[in-house]
Amino acid sequence: MFLDGLDTIDQQILQLLIQNARASYSDIGQRIGISRVAVKSRIQALEQKGIIEEYTTIVNPRKISGAMSCYFEIETSPESLGQVTQILEQNEIITQIYRVTGRNKLHVHAVASSNEEMEKLIQEVIDPLPGVVSCGCNVILSRVKDIKGLRL
Questions:
Q1: Nearest to 47 by CA among 23, 24, 17, 19
Q2: From CA 127, how far away is CA 139, in angstroms rounded?
Q3: Which one of 12, 29, 51, 142 is at 20 to 30 Å from 124 when CA atoms are compared?
């Protein structure tokens, strides 16, 4: 698992924070058998090392507005990659951008409030991107597995 590089106590602390990032130091300490002060110290060390990047709330947009989610696989010419990445980073509908190996250079996730908004993103942002060799789009129908607390 992705926590194998940590000692057992840090792994337990992270598992509890992944389940509930609002858990108190006291609650975590009681569950794993160490003091509140030791938990606080270990969490601060994990934060300083960059292992814990942030504490956040996860919103499911489908429960609010029936939003739709897509992954784009975008292959660009090497000289256009930086410009394409900058354009995509500026768009609020685009939630994640990964540079990947293989034929497709970018793996891009977008969440739109409607089919119309996603179509507008494709027409006004994705289609005109400079230097695009190929672009594929996959609509996400449902979430089968999503490991909370893990981002690469």
A1: 17
A2: 17
A3: 142
Interval 16-58: pLDDT, tens: 998 899 999 999 999 999 999 999 999 999 999 999 988 887 7
**Residue environment code for 27-41, b if the CB has 16+ CB neighbours within 10 A, otherwise e:** ebbeebebeeebbee
CB 47, CB 55: distance < 8 Å: no
CA geometry: angle 103, 107, 110, nearest 5 deg: 150
Q: Tell me the CA end-to-end span of the chain in Å, nearest whole number.
A: 14
Concatenated DSSP letters for 114-128?
SHHHHHHHIIIIITT
Q: Which of 146, 34, 56 is nearest to 11 (CA)?
A: 34
Position 144 confidence tier, pLDDT thresholds 50, 70, 90:
confident
The tokens describing 35, both together, are 């003091």
